[in-house]
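thought: user wants a sequence for this fold. calling inverse folding tool.
action: design(structure=
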């Protein structure tokens, strides 16, 4: 279910409608196929007009994935700190963008959809990459508060942030593909935990490789 604590009535209503449309789109794609999951069919199952559909999602693919631009923007606007591992903090932020309009059952739906239509993962990663400037600014802010980067300029923080983001996005892409292709997710760790653990191992492997290449 959506975590709507702290949201006003209008925001909660929007979150509920967004989730209803997303669930309808994902279920239709799984039941009838992506081509048959038309905007009209999705709207009909969700009990909304096509005009309302477009108030939430620009395309049916975004609806199937649950990418709500307003919710994503709100997630980015949250004040975030980085108290520990920067790469893990960035992974948590990117994951929050993936799940901006919900979690729980929607995570399972998203996994099923991506397993059936793997090209949609590429679309989701592209949408996250389109937020590069905002994500880089957040990471640069973390670096500016890190004593290890105290001697760097603002421009150097931003350059480093873009490099870190690029590495993270590539690693997240691999991580999420492994998560989506899990042959038996019911017996594995929770959907929110498995990708993070895989990502952490991937970053550790990257660190080992970089050390050996120096």
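)
observation: tool returned 214 residues.
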């Amino acid at each position: 279910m959506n975590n709507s604590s702290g949201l006003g009535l209008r925001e909660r209503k929007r979150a509920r409608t967004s989730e209803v449309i997303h669930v309808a789109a994902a279920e239709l794609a799984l039941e009838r196929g992506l081509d048959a999951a038309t905007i009209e069919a999705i709207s009909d199952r969700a009990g909304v007009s096509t005009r309302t559909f477009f108030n939430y999602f620009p395309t049916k693919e975004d609806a199937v994935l649950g990418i709500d631009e307003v919710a994503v923007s709100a997630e980015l606007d949250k004040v975030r700190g980085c108290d520990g591992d920067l790469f893990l903090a960035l992974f948590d932020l990117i994951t929050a963008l993936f799940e901006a309009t919900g979690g729980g059952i929607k995570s399972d739906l998203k996994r099923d959809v991506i397993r059936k239509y793997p090209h949609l993962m590429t679309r989701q990663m592209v949408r996250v990459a389109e937020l590069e400037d905002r994500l880089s600014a957040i990471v640069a802010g973390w670096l500016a508060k890190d004593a290890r980067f105290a001697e760097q300029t603002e421009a150097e923080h931003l350059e480093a942030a873009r490099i870190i983001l690029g590495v993270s996005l590539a690693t997240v892409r691999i991580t999420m593909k492994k998560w989506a292709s899990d042959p038996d997710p019911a017996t594995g760790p929770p959907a929110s935990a498995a990708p993070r653990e895989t990502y952490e191992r991937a970053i550790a492997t990257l660190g080992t490789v970089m050390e050996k290449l120096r």
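thought: summarizing for user.
answer: Here is the designed sequence. Residues 67-213 form one domain.
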